[in-house]
Amino acid sequence: MFKKKTIDIIKKLEDRNILYQITNKNKLYKILEKKKINLYCGFDLTADSLHIGHLIPLITLKYFQNLGHKPIILLGGATSLIGDPSFKLQERKIIPINTINKWFKKISLQLQNFLDFNCGINSAVIINNYEWFKKMDILFFLNKIGRYFYINQMLNKDFIKKRMTNEKNIQGISFTEFSYNLLQSYDFAYLNKNFDVILQIGGSDQWGHIISGIDLIKKIYQKKVFGITTNLVIKNDGTKFGKTENQTIWLDEKKTSPYDFFQFWLNTPDSTVFNFLNMFTNYEKKIIDDIKKKNNKIKTDSAQYILAKYITQITHGKKLLLISQKITSLLFFQKIDNLSQNDFNFLLKNINSINLEKKDYTLQDILVLSKLAPSRTQAFTIIKSNAVYINSKNISDPLFICTNNYKKFNHFTLLRKGKKTFCLIFWK
Q1: Is 54 a catalytic residue?
Q2: Could you tell me where the DSSP H helices lie in 113-174?
Q3: Catalytic residue among 23, 60, 184, 325
Q4: Catalytic status, residue 364
Q5: Catalytic site residue 376?
Q6: Is 319 annotated as catalytic?
Q7: Which of the listed CATH numbers 1.10.3720.10, 3.40.50.620, 3.40.50.2000, 3.10.450.50 matches domain 9-230?
Q8: In the 8-state DSSP scheme, what is residue 371?
């Protein structure tokens, strides 16, 4: 993923527009110059997969690991039972512990794609904070942790204030969520004491929690530790990519197919793509500048295509990247009359498809059966808006019937809604 070489890691993160905030930059720089450190990043288990919003922290950890530092991933089995209130309008749903344990195993496997877990002394490690919180009693929590947190200071934290002043959330914030900040802070303190961790990495929405952890370690152990936050990946509507938001792009191929994952990056706006190349890839600035200067209009040489190839390969591997590229080529770069029967069989295995009996269905019915429309009424509206295509031909008649002329090799019909949503019909 990244070549190992001696670099100023802080400057590297700044130049790549990854670094958002950092505590005591000069002091941390001097430590990184002299020795290798242990650092960590935490992810709560609030879904069975990570998503693209987690990529930047993972890439950051990989930069550190390639310089000989040891990355620790903390998966929050305990904190997931509570839920991080940061920038959430409502309290999260309670997740059973057995579900969290299943998600721990799945996400642990996903992480193998991004960090090296078998490279010697700086091999990555995955830890579950449920291991220490399950042994902790309430008196220890209140006496050893709670005594260092002051309500007036906590009320001034942005994520607390937003929940308490949000008009849509009449109840404000529960004590359970209010205590999340204490638990994450103790995570940092526990890792500092038991694993000599001196640096926490997190998204920019984690700044308040990181600062609390730094303060707690200073009070308990009189030690100086550090925090770095990274820029968040923002959707086109200005909101961050989160697990509970709409349009989430998951790293799990069963939740977001490698083809859809590839298409997401392929459709990156021109205004964003070069920043994404800088943030998500290890291409040097000169290479990115060269791509920008060429401004190549050939689809497979475009900045978006280069970005999509890179991220899909590190996330899903070479094999699934090649499949995604082939699907993209067949659907977007070739004329349907030039597709062979083998091409259609390939698409049948790799894109959304339905089997239909060889009888007369209206286009309105087909849209509902293919789940490209939730009802006949909406199917009618979509068709009349000229958004439906059969074998690349626009069809505006809801009562249109697919005749044999529209069945390639007597079995295949390619249905498209809008510019990018496909379904292949196989006529049995």
Answers
A1: yes
A2: 130-133, 138-140, 151-155, 158-165
A3: 184
A4: no
A5: no
A6: no
A7: 3.40.50.620
A8: T
